[in-house]
Amino acid sequence: MPSNAAYAVMTKSRAKYGKRLTKQNYRELLSLSSVGEIAMYLKTQTHYSSALSSVQETAVHRGYLEKLLRGKVLDDFAELCHFEESVGEHLFEYILLRGDVSELLRFVRRYNAGHPEEYLFELPVFFNRHTKTDLLALSKVKSFDALLQVFAASPLAKIISGFRPESGHVIDYTALEAALRKYLFTFSLEMLKKYNLKKAAGELETLFTAQAELENLRVIFRCKKYFNTSADMLSALLTPARLHFTKRQMKDMIAATDIKTIETVLANSYYHKFLGQHGYIDEYTGQFLCKTCRKYMRFSSLPAIVMLSYVYLFELEIEDITNIIEGVRYNMPPEQISRLTVALS
Fold it and tell me: How many structural domains compose the chain?
């Protein structure tokens, strides 16, 4: 039977999830006409009020607003982990590693563009409170050796070292991103074996594998749509994760010469029930994770599953908010913006 701590963390997770944005909240956000109005609404009408208490709506920047929202999710998750340390500390280790990967890639984009110092303006103070990586030092990096030094104590250092660029060249961002995604997936599965998470291990592995498989789908779709990437090159970019796609389906998508072929494979796959009517690839992946994690939030008796589902669901919520903000900034019609959200699609 679950311990008192397990009951407590599941109850608290579900209570926090109960404060999520409703469809009515999303419709009201879609009716707004500026980032400032969106910030004011989130500050006064939603569970993000405490995180946005210091925000000045007249001068808020989209990136800063997003950082505050993500900060709330991470802080809330850290709080949940304290209730169930036997599971929470291991999941938190995984979440922090994901965060380190995201920040590394964010920095490399700036570094490759010749403006590494601009990372300072994107540095997430909330994440810096939790990670062992010195992100402030990262904002001062001017060379590849200095980058390695920042991550010297991290398991990511070995991966980064394999992407030292030749003189006059930039870091191979696409290959680095693929290597990091593969490492994250491997790390997640090894974590399950290392810490003997018992009953939760099977469902956690399903969640990790599903997320990796859906990320592979995004990579396939974008590589074929925008770059016409060859099958060999595309295969090298994919994580070795397969849950609901058959080997034949994966092979057909990798070898596809047009998007129509990929859509045909999707329509005949397990994921067909999650396909959105508007055809956005993020809608496919988001809908599957959303529906799966909602089911776990309601019915699972395993704290690790409920906690990880909590994180994924609120990450999807922030992606929806970010898409609305971007749509409003570029004066997109509300009905078009709504198609980009998981909540309303």
Answer: 2
Residue 245, domain member (yes or no): no
Looking at the fold, whether 76 and 101 belong to one and the same domain comes out as: no
The whole-model pTM stands at 0.89
Judgement on whether residues 101 and 158 belong to the same structural domain of the protein: yes
**86: confidence class by pLDDT, cuts 50, 70, 90:** low
- Four-CA torsion 295, 299, 301, 302, nearest 10 degrees: 0
Same domain, residue pair 8 and 92:
no
Query: Using one digit for the tens of pLDDT, what is the confidence trace for 262-276?
Result: 989 999 999 887 765
Domain that holds residue 150: 86-182
Please report whether residue 317 resides in a domain: yes
pLDDT of residue 1: 46
Residue 241 inside a domain? The answer is no
Do 5 and 34 have their domain in common? yes
Q: Is residue 130 part of a domain?
A: yes
